[in-house]
Amino acid sequence: MLRGGRAAVVLAAALALTACGGGGEPGGGEPGGGVYRIGVVTSSTGPFAANHTTMVAGAEYAVKVLNENGGINGNKVELVTVDGQNNPTSLATLIPQLATRDQVYAIVGPVDSAGCEIACATANKLEVPIVSPGAGRPGVLANSRPYGFTLAQPDAANSTAVLSKAIRDLGFTTAAIITDEANATTKAQADLFTQIFADTGVQVVQRATFASGDSSFASQITSIAAADPDVLALAAGPDDAGRIAREARSQKLRATFLGTGALQSGGSAYVAAGGEATEGTIAAAQYDPHSSNPVAAPLLEKAQADTGQADIPLNFAYAFDAVNMVATLIKEKNLAPDGTDIANARRQIQEGLNAMDRYVGMADVTTFAEDGTAERPQLRSVVQGGKFVIDKSAS
Amino acid sequence: MLGQQLFNGVLLGATFALVALGFNLVVGAMDRLNFALGETAMVSAVVGAVLMETGLPFAVAFLAAIATGGLLAVIVYVASFRYVSDRFPTASILSSLGMGLVLTAVVVKVFGSDQRSVPDVLAGVDLDLGLFRVSGAQLVIIVLAALMTVGLYVFLDRTVWGTAIRGVSDDPTMVALLGVPVQRVILLTFTLSGVLAGAAGLLTGLAYHSVSPFDGFTSTLTALMVIVLGGLGSVTGGVIAALVIGVLQTLTVAYLSATLRDLIVFVLVGIVLLVRPQGLFGRNAGVLERV
Amino acid sequence: MSPLAELLRVTAVTKRFQGVEALADIDLAVQEGTVHGVVGPNGAGKTTLLNVMSGYVRPDAGRIELAGRDITRLTPQLRVPLGLVRTFQNIRLYGGLTVLENVLLGQHTRARTGLRSLWPFPTPQERALRAEAEAALELFELAPYRSRRAAELPYGLQKQLEMARAMAARPRVLLLDEPAAGMTTDGRHALVERLHELRGQGLTIVVVEHDMDVIAKVCDHVTVLNFGRTLTEGPPAVVLAGDEVRTAYLGT
Q1: Pfam family example for this protein (chain B) (predicted)?
Q2: Domain boundaries of chain A, sorted by first residue
Q3: Cα distance between residue A237 and residue A259, in whole Å
Q4: Which of C79, C99, C105 is best to mutate for the B interface (most B CBs within 10 A)?
Q5: Which of A128, B4, B214, C116 fits a 20 to 30 Å CA distance from B256?
Q6: CATH entry, A2-12+25-153+293-375, from 3.30.460.10, 1.10.150.120, 3.30.365.10, 3.40.50.2300
Q7: How many CA atoms are closer than 13 Å to the CA of A243, on its beta-carbon side?
Q8: pLDDT tier, B27 (very low <50, low <70, confident <90, very high otherwise)
Q9: Considering only alpha carbons, which residue of chain C is nearest residue B157?
Q10: Is residue B291 part of a domain?
């Protein structure tokens, strides 16, 4: 590590000499020739492989658009993508590699909380800014400050206001909660629902539990159906939630299903598992693929046209914004390309991200809070025609 | 509500019973456990679900599932039992476990590792029987499971081959001396066990609304609990134990906690093993008790 | 069909168990329609000879022919359909199955076993076989026990059932291993009568037996074995009276 560090300093000095050879201003955005490298940490295996693919596409698209518009002051932006393969050990070696060998200005990824916990902490130690386009577990950045950021707002913070408003709007008075007892995230969701129901004066008439990997929900739904609640809160992973929805409808349960933002982000799995039974499900959301924000809307429309996707996925938009946030700061602070004075450049980007207020991009408005997590729009989504759509009338 | 919960339990038990019957048939014929039977059920369920997704009627999917189960059981027999020496009774445990892993891997390779949604049947049907309601899918499950169980009884009791299966189960060398083709009887036994597992797989999929490539071993484990409780090789014991475990699991989830569900079953099976190691229905409990 | 002179023929059969010759160069010919007794002291090789005939044990040398066909290499499973069926010295029934089912299993090789047989509603052939099995139970005085588990029967009835099951395969040659062992005097009388009856129906019987009274009453021909060799053979009246037999077997 020490040798690598020294080599990096020598390399950086050499690059700085050549960059300054033209006699331009120090750190100057000399037009043309230079390269800004941004690291991307993906994972081709594991439960979030698909999200990572989406993320990489979003980052690549951002770079393509940037370079088509002349790059940053005429210097190209380049991605260096590494694959952690959902393996902590790989992440722990790949991040230093990005930092020293590849001289990246910042890192985008991983999207999952478990991956971010390791990658973000490692990058923080090396003082490289890292932005996760999706990690939303509470406390995910505890060991990663001040260099670690996530574009996702933790579930609790985002969902509470949205769901409370939905409950009031729709006049629900009784509720049941079904919880996956064998999973920390879903147990936290259940606590969140309990709090929301208490705050809104909704009576919880039945609680049912299951364990991850359980297959039959017949028993739980029978208990819930006997209490006949207005809403059924799904503190469950998207696949399980979908099957709960089907079992509920097959037992003629009339309750409206309620989910946190996690259910919305796993929306396609939820609808695939639950089919028609999921129609009308209400969940919190923090991203609208059809936002009417004057900055976001044209970006989304252009991305739709360029990529041929009807709905730009969350991880795509978040990765796009993460790359652009870094690019914007490089430009604003007039940082030199090719890894010149890289340690200083990284520090400036970090300070810029922390100071950033109401950044508007493809994913609408983002502000980073004290703990590096994002404050995001609080939206209500509802399953209509087989997918979650943002209920604009409710926002 | 208790009535409904009991019905839920019986429904769950009915699907357990089919897999357990499959296990017991093979135990009878060969004194061996086929550890790939759960995966056989899973593959059959996936095949059935895929056919239903293409819009084929449930009856066709069901027939395809039991045919798949029968065929796979024969393949498992040839691959994991036929050529394994009698001198190493544990070898077939490993070879059949291995076949189970292969089946799971093939399904993951072909269909992916995601769980697959199983479409509903008779979605419009909803019978209110006072004590409990029966949905269309539940009706299909309970009727088919009962038919297959009764069918197995009648087959074992009434047909030339059923008698031969019970003969092999009683004394395989003796049967050969009477001219009964033992290898063919064993092959038939495996086929039957696969047919039962195939049916169980798709019916379970209907009950759970989905099937996952990793369901196989869970089915195997549940079936093992059932046959230990009911008595290894006992057909009637297996059916009763399956219903007991189904009801017990359902009531535990309904009135205690989901996390206690397996624990309570394990404790029950543990107690039975201590008090009655031969299971509730031991080997010599009557003619049809043993296959 | 015209009676064959020799229905079952054993030629120069030798069988060794761990170097000891259980059978040494045995020749034996069973005439069709006769009852052929095999006697000798314990360890003379009687049961081994029966095992070799039925295919349970494969000889080291020699050949077995049934109606002129070499069956030396056939498994017992394949000898049954050719008409060679046996019983056991220590009874081997399906204890868990009913009396009737034991007989039905005895018929297995005669039942048509195509796909149709998997269907539980009986074909006319299956119905005929079942009727025949019921008749056999009457004949062997087992009808009252038809639904009892075989293991629950008293010893004498188990022996009868074993013979009934063997007969259910419609053998041409019936091999009996000590049918009188453990029987009461009444049982022996009944056995002798039954064997006469079966012989009267044209059945060929090979019987290994200790009871000289039974042998004398039922056999047309007797072979005496001692130390795995043929000591002598001939009609029972002659053989059983011979000095050699008395010395080797009865004289002690």
Answers
A1: BPD_transp_2
A2: 2-12+25-153+293-375, 156-285
A3: 10
A4: C105
A5: B214
A6: 3.40.50.2300
A7: 26
A8: confident
A9: C120
A10: no
A2-12+25-153+293-375 and A156-285 share one fold = yes
Q: Hey, what amino acid is at B136?
A: G
Instruction: Read off the tokens for C57.
Output: 């044990």
Q: What is the C-alpha to C-alpha distance for residues A2 and A177, in angstroms, rounded to an integer?
A: 54
Domain count, chain B: 1
Token code pair at residue A335: 């940082």
Residue ranges of domains in chain C, CATH in brackets:
1-83+172-252 (3.40.50.300), 96-170 (no CATH)
Local structure of residue C247 (DSSP, 8 states): I
pLDDT, mean over chain A? 87
- Chain C nearest-CA distance from B30, in A, is 16
Residue with tokens 């990058």: A123
CB-CB neighbours of B61 under 10 Å: 25
- Cβ separation of B210 and A222 shorter than 8 Å? no
- Spatial separation of the C-alpha atoms in residues B27 and B25, rounded to whole Å: 5
Q: Is B41 on the interface with A (CB under 8 A)?
A: no
DSSP class of residue C121 equals S
B249 inside domain: no
- Helix H or strand E segment including C65: strand C61-66
Q: A219 — contact with chain B (CB < 8 Å)?
A: yes
Residues 173-202 of B with CB under 8 A from C: 174-182
Average pLDDT over residues A218-225: 91
Residue B90: its pLDDT value, please?
83
Residue where the block lists tokens 């081959």: B161
Judging contact as 3 or more Cβ pairs under 8 Å, the answer for B and A is yes
Nearest chain A residue to B207, by CA: A216
Does residue C14 sit at the B interface (CB-CB below 8 Å)? Answer: no
CA dihedral sign, ordered C37, C41, C45, C51: positive
A205 touches chain B (CB under 8 A): no
Residue B71 lies in a domain: yes
The range of the structural domain enclosing residue B176 comes to 2-215
**Secondary structure (H, E, C), chain B:** CHHHHHHHHHHHHHHHHHHHHHHHHHHHHHCCCCCCHHHHHHHHHHHHHHHHHCCCCHHHHHHHHHHHHHHHHHHHHHHHHHCCCCCCCCHHHHHHHHHHHHHHHHHHHHHCCCCEECCCCCCCCEEECCCCEEEHHHHHHHHHHHHHHHHHHHHHHHCHHHHHHHHHHHCHHHHHHCCCCHHHHHHHHHHHHHHHHHHHHHHHHHHHCEECCCHHHHHHHHHHHHHHHHCCCEHHHHHHHHHHHHHHHHHHHHHCCHHHHHHHHHHHHHHHHHHCCCCCCCCCCCCCCEC
Which amino acid appears at position B236 of this protein?
A: T
Q: Is the CB of residue A209 less than 8 Å from the CB of residue A244?
A: no
With tokens 């009338």, the residue in question is A393
Query: Any CB–CB contact under 8 A between B160 and chain C?
Result: yes
- The confidence score (pLDDT) of residue A214 equals 67
The yes-or-no reply on C/B contact (3 CB pairs or more, < 8 Å) is: yes
Beta partners for residue A178, in sequence order: A208, A234
Q: Determine the CATH number of domain A156-285.
A: 3.40.50.2300
Residue B213: its chain A contacts at CB < 8 A?
none
Of A131-135, A231-235, A296-300, C155-159, the range with the lowest mean pLDDT is C155-159
A347 pLDDT exceeds 90? yes
Question: Cβ B163–C105 below 8 Å, yes or no?
Answer: yes
What gap in Å lies between CA A279 and CA A254, rounded to an integer?
12
**Residue C127 identity:** R
End-to-end Cα distance, chain B = 37
Contacts of C95 in chain B (CB under 8 A): 170-171
A265 and B CB contact within 8 Å? no
Tell me the pLDDT band of B283, cut-offs 50, 70 and 90: low
